[in-house]
User: Fold Pseudouridine synthase II N-terminal domain-containing protein from Oryzias javanicus.
Amino acid sequence: MVTPAALTFRRLHGLFCVYKPPGVHWKLVRDTIETNLLKGVNAAPPLALPHRVRFLAEPTSRTEEPTAVTLTATSVPALSKHPLVTGPEFQNIRVGVGHRLDVTSSGVLVLAVGAGNKVLDELYKTRVTRDYTLECEFGTATSDFSDTGRVVEKSTYDHITVDKLEKVLAMLEGANQKALRVFSNVDMSSQEAYELAVRGLLGPDGKSAPILTGLRCIHFQPPNFTLEVQCLNETQKYLRKVVHEIGLELRSTAVCRGVRRTRDGLFTSRDALTRNHWSAADIMQAIKQHRRSKKTENHTQNQTKTPVMQTSEEGLIQVKVEEMSS
Assistant:
């Protein structure tokens, strides 16, 4: 018989995402969620204890003389099945982690429970892009390209304008677009390459060097500026190095003060659960919402394909009617 705890665990199979705060290791986030899920699943009410027939002796008073013992058949609960004897039903729940974030970075972190771990492995193999917001500052260079590293150089930045910055960003984006075509292993003059580009699936086959598919400045107030980045196969250290190289291209220096992931594939910061919502009930609701949104997306794609076919058929019928009338 399936227990309430097992039924609760079945509802947790799937993908969800949380918001990892800066300064916290991703392993601590995973361990905290595993602990909360264990508490939530094992908190389900247990099944009623099974009863067994026992032959018990009837009590006798002290005044009565000892005679033959009288046994009575009695149904008693099997204490060997009691939760205090057997312990919690679930001792371990494995939570898988998707594209990881280092300690100083923050943002969307995709996690998986149960059968969702298989889907998470497939997510690694797909060409999904990730979005980041980089908080940057001109005038400083450090040993590890972050604001916490050892300062190795100071420079001026008064000559930098937003137009000069955008020219450098456009140059970097163009170079990465060329690398995207090189790593795609597809003939750029073929119909396959055109169809992949239209569907947004043109990308490296498997692992490759980091590629920036989009790069733009969304805030510029020297010495501070903010970049929005779309990328593939990146690391947070690589993104900080890109900011350093942008500073060098502008005849200055730059350091990255913060890396925040805002999207990982289908998951965005709006879907991410904050620290106060890392409970089993909230995670179950997030997994359910992801399944519903995925079904809606698949249904929408099917609906968009159907009208195109109907329109083409109606157009052919209209042409035939005009030919017959002429």
